[in-house]
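[job 0412] stage=complex_fold ligand=S-adenosyl-L-homocysteine status=START
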Amino acid sequence: MKQKQDIRALTKDQLRDFFVLQNDKAFRGNQVYEWLWRKGAHNFDDMTNISKETRQMLKSNFVINHIEVDQMQRSNDGTVKNAIKLHDGMIVESVLIPTENRSTACVSSQVGCSLDCNFCATAKLKKMRNLNPDEIYDQVVAIDKQSRLYQNHKLSNIVFMGMGEPLLNYKNVLMAIDKITSDEGLSMSPRRITLSTVGIPKMIKKLADDNVKFNLAVSLHSAIDEVRSKMMPINKKSNLADLLEALQYWYVKTNRQITFEYVIWKNINDKQKDIDALVKYCKKIPSKVNLIEYNAIDDGEFQQASSKATEQYVRTLEAHNITVNIRRSRGKDIDAACGQLANKKVEE
Ligand code: SAH
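[job 0412] stage=complex_fold status=DONE, emitting structure tokens
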């Protein structure tokens, strides 16, 4: 039997053409497209303004692949972690992070990850596959529902800081963002979306060339090549100088500053020379720094630096007029914090 195609892999134009080929009106394609995206239908029978015969015809040609929330955990601090089951049974994780006046969705872009950052739990999972645009979109829809339910307001921000490296799934991530920001999708402002990357120079330049409107965050963690290469092996392929060149290219094209994500570990990057290197790096590119609290992963190899070290970072960066924020961890008790997403099973 011929495998049915996922209807959400079609563009609006392809859907319109399909209906024309069926001797129907192209406009029918618009109606179905609206059901699939803006209205988030997961069943052809939900499409109430489409005739029964047409729905039947669609069913015999297509499927609507969709995600399901397989398991949900709520943290004491209100953070909600979801194990999301994909149509082929694979699992990724998505997190709702509520704060007083916003709700942020942290979404995954790949099943597992191919990069070997040695402090990240997701890195221990092999990369299985890229997520499709609709699988990324659906995570946002699911988290938006939870935000409305638990926080009484809609989702305000999205960060691509879940599982996977978004720039290694470039096309699908951009297609998903396109749908999320489009009036035919969720109408969210791209300014409220942040893509976080290990920093792949070629792809950062491509983002700039593609004139994207969302924010860019780079997981820096050290401005000294030797240290960064140890923590993030990707740095051996493209070093800090290559990264800087790409970021400068980004800035010239977009005029928007970069956010550096930075964890301070004990005896790794907690010395004055590490701080000085960061200051020097930040001076070369308009940027701000988010200091992220380290979330220990099971093997306990690394430890969060002392609060004194963090204070010294803050003091020095501020003295050089570099904006710095301390990002406290959320959802730690349910392994929902940065770098803790590893498809850990909950005891039933
Ligand atoms: N691949 C992308 C997005 C996923 S990670 C990236 O690397 O940016 C999201 C953020 O969590 C990154 O800044 C990453 O470096 C950080 N992170 C990973 N493991 C962590 C851990 N154990 N504790 C704190 N932050 C961690």
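The pocket of S-adenosyl-L-homocysteine is lined by residues 119-120, 161, 165, 196-198, 219, 261, 263, 292, 294-295, 297, 338-339 (CB under 6 Å).
[job 0412] exit 0
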